[in-house]
Amino acid sequence: MKHELYGCPCCSGTFGLLFSVNNTVRNLKEEAASENGWSCNWGIDWARFGRRDFLKSGAAFAGLSTLLPNGGQAQSATSTQATTVFTNGNILTVDDDFSEAEAIALRGNRILAVGSDGEVRAVAGADANIIDLGGKTVLPGFIDAHTHVVSGSVVDAIMEYVGMARYSTVAEVLDHIAQRVAETPAGDWLVFRNFDPAVQEGADALTFADLDPISTEHPIFVLNASGHLAYANSKAFEVSGVTNDVEDPPGGEFVRDADGKLTGTMKNNVAFLKIAENYPAMAEVNPVEGLLGLLDKWAKFGLTTVSELSLGALAQSPADTQVMAAAAQSGRMNARIRAYPFYTIGAEAWDEAKVMQGDGNALARIAGYKLVADGSNQGFTGLQRDPYLDSDNRGLAYMQPDELTAAALERASKGWHLAIHGNGDAAIDNILDTCEALREAGIDMSRVRPRIEHCSILHDEQIARMKDLGVSASFLIGHVHFWGIAMRDEVFGEEKVQLLDRCRSVDEAGVGFTLHSDFMVTDPDPLHMIEMAVTRRTWKEPDYILAPQETISVETAIRAMTSEAAWQLFSDHEVGSLEPGKLADMVILDQDPRDVDPNEIKAINVLETWMDGRQVFQA
């Protein structure tokens, strides 16, 4: 069987090329490269929102100010020291004992007290504002330990989602596009993302034959969930000046039919950029506004801390840090960000930019460094011990073992925490060999706190090595739910697929783990992710439970999206549990996830989200 090979779109190192035409991104990158008007740390005023004091020139601050929406105001809740008591509730603290309480008090942006109504009122004082929870459930704000929020937010701002979470068939996607055509003036672009015919029933690709009957007056562009493929109608080709005599660029392809005519399908961004770059919003969208807008949308999910696991991918330079800094200084952040500089930019470039682990503050911080060992299992580039089903292909090593170890040693020796992408079992072998080399070099592994991203295919002896080396796992649990049947029938087979996302096995072995969305791969809905891990039911065959021996308890799944995620992000001292002194991040639900049918956890309503002592969402 010949497989279509592709890597993880957010971890390939080339995703940001999609935005090479964006005016803001281009200007940031050019300024950073020239160093004109920039002093230490690319002009970011870390002193204003961070722990380290950097000098900044007037020109540098002017460059940052142009990104700040509404001129930019530093965000702080500490100036407002009003005390609020939430009482008569079911407060799940997610502390070490998973303690339950009936009341919690917030003062400013901190948790003042947690306990019984009498205890909390006594600490809060007579002037405290009292809110009756009426028996509702309170949890720590949810934390997604692996998203791509900086680069992904730009895509989200200008491309509409048509993925499997909303549309189960290709026909439904086409119907939705037709509906959007009817609502949109002729000539305007219609651009969509996350189309995935690998799991959405119907045709394997979209072509002119599918899209031209919908409209010949609107340019239509659809990005595949893999980031590897895209589709467009004839109008999009026409306005982009791409004709039948176009040559395939190196590494890309304009797919043709048997007669040599274009079909509308394109492979790799070097090809489809020739279409997408003509979409006006690609050049005009403001990355800071996109980031703030996405964080605002995610508040409805109860998310209060998210992550960027490939910082630098948007601008293909350390200039991405500027986008994060501008958002943090806007006064409008509705969730915290923990970011990981991406290895493809080069350690030297990050060092020259003076970007260091710990830079920033509780709103936005550099948390660690990201390395990538292999690609994507469903893209047949995850590195495997044995070939994929009905194939002689074993996937790809994005970094050779010696290269991976050398990069990890160089970063860890300078105090960096490491997050290493590994999907296939052979890639995980390489990662664990690298961690062994770190320990043998005398590096304190508790400081490195290494984590394996996705950690998809895992054997018993690898789990034992993880425990021994102090390595944790972060599971993209959507692999089980959305792609589980494809993983069984097309990627691994019935036997090997049992090794996918082994939540219970790592938990029983004492290995910490988290659940994540890998946005834009899946949407970051924590309650749905908790349900996926608890039930392991598959989207295509709801009665099929993939590896039922790996189901976990609701409490364990909640920990994976709160306290464990905070630990992985080096933020366990400030978020992840409801304890006095920690930051006032919490979510109020209409039901306790432990008390509902496990298949209905995702239907629980998020009533309110509080971040930094502020209500940032109310249903």
TrEMBL record:
UniProtKB keywords: Hydrolase
Presence of the UniProt keyword Repeat in the record: no
Gene3D superfamilies per record: 3.10.310.70, Metal-dependent hydrolases, Urease, subunit C, domain 1
Domain Amidohydrolase: 130-617
GO molecular function terms listed in the Swiss-Prot or TrEMBL record: hydrolase activity
The keyword Hydrolase is assigned to this record: yes
EC top class, as a word: hydrolase
Coiled coil segments of this chain: none
One Pfam short name: Amidohydro_3
EC number: 3.5.-.-
Residues spanning the signal sequence: none
CDD domains with a match to the protein in the record: YtcJ_like
InterPro entries: Amidohydro_3, Metal-dep_hydrolase_composite, Metal_Hydrolase, YtcJ-like
Cited PANTHER family: IMIDAZOLONEPROPIONASE (PTHR22642), PROTEIN LONG AFTER FAR-RED 3 (PTHR22642:SF2)
Protein name: Amidohydrolase
Organism in which the protein naturally occurs: Aliisedimentitalea scapharcae
